[in-house]
Amino acid sequence: MLTITTYIEQKTLDSFYFNKENFQDYFISLNDTSSTQVVNRRLKKHKGHKLEGVVIIKTIDTTMTDFMDWDDIDLMWIGILQMILEYKKTGFGEHFMAMNGHKWSIKKIITNPENLMLFRIKRNPLNFESKDSYEFYKETKNIVNEKDFFFKILQAANEFIFFREKLFKIDSVGRLKALMSEIQ
């Protein structure tokens, strides 16, 4: 089973230090009833030019992306969709996240009866306060079913686009829609 959830900042992330217990102080799920109101306040504060968040991707046994992977959420979604488009054309896709420099990649593994893919995150060591925490979190990878991954990621991207259209407007929604139509 694969779950993909988008979270948006609700508090300035400059002071966020990764801690699995305190993420709810800093992030709000798109599915939260107050998310539109909270996120519009954040966007108005930044004049529509800055919205940070994270796409959390989990399988039954692995949390592939976590709150420490936060970045500009519009650029994150654009990067994920561009990575998928690259993958569909060549069997490999990668993207460097805008602010944190983490490298996300997907690579086709041809198997029967269905294709699998290797999903990998390599994290930037400069984002960690200690070498120990970097060594522990430096890379996350897992093998996922290609068909399930595409279904879930496109579903989550559509949810984000729908959510984003209700908010203070900027041009990234048009780019997200164009990528979605090119992928489909």
The profile of the biggest β sheet is: 4 strands, antiparallel
Strand sequence of the main sheet, in spatial order? 2-1-3-4
- How much of the sequence is in beta strands? 25-35%
Number of helices: 6
Unreliable stretches covering 5 or more consecutive residues: none
> Mean pLDDT across all residues, rounded?
84
Task: Tell me the radius of gyration.
Answer: 16 Å
Provide a short characterization of the protein structure:
The chain is an alpha+beta fold and 184 residues long. The chain contains 6 helices and 8 strands; from the N terminus they run βαβαββαβββαβαα.
Task: Describe the protein.
Helix content is 39%, strand content 26%. The chain has 184 residues and is α+β, with helices and mostly antiparallel strands. A hairpin with a 6-residue loop joins strand 6 (103-109) and strand 7 (116-122). Helix 3 (73-90) packs parallel to helix 6 (172-183) and helix 5 (146-165) runs antiparallel to helix 6 (172-183). The two termini are 23 Å apart.
What key phrases describe this protein's structure?
single chain; 184 residues; alpha+beta; globular
Helix and strand arrangement:
Layout: E1 2-9, H1 23-26, E2 27-29, H2 35-45, E3 52-59, E4 71-72, H3 73-90, E5 92-96, E6 103-109, E7 116-122, H4 131-137, E8 139-145, H5 146-165, H6 172-183
Antiparallel strand pairs: 1-2, 1-3, 3-4, 5-6, 6-7, 7-8
